[in-house]
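can u pls check wat happens w/ zinc ion
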Amino acid sequence: MRSVKLLLVLIVVALVAAVVYVYASPSSTLDGPKAPAIPVAQSGSAQPLPSGLVMPVQGVKSDQLTDTWHQSREGGARVHEAIDIMAPGGTPVLAALPGTVEKLFQSDRGGTTIYIRTDDSKWTAYYAHLRGYAPGLAEGQRITAGQLIGYVGDTGDAGPGNFHLHFALNRMAPGERWWQGTAINPYPILAGKPSGS
Ligand SMILES: [Zn+2]
């Protein structure tokens, strides 16, 4: 009888140890969709980058990205100041960084678009060619990083069936409005490696 009790105690101890091991393991964090590791801007750098971005298309991995920054567009009339992230139509588009919806805009080129400004007013994230907005999305709405804001589409000049998210990051000078700003290449931030690699 004593040996049966000892056996039961050993089984319980083993179970507890297994549970502790699983929860302590770094590969089993339970916080849902993971943002890629983004290099955090060093304090004191002249042009700090937004840090802690979330991949703006659900299910896309960093190593699936192609650097489409400064590709020629419209026969060389302008260059591409964004990254195109390919995904099936209807794939959820997530806010790459938190902020406030500054403008929901229908444009000839961008189609159905969203502009979200960060709380410090220094950055605007731009999402274009959307099939549609997340239900209830409105200008002035507070958005958290990773929040559903829309769906991948082919609106604007994307071309029928050429489903992708056009994602731009614009550095905003004081007083600049939603259609202004200076674009930086989102690829190194989202891919976690330098442009051209
Ligand atoms: Zn594009």
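The CA atoms of residues 88 and 163 lie 6 Å apart.
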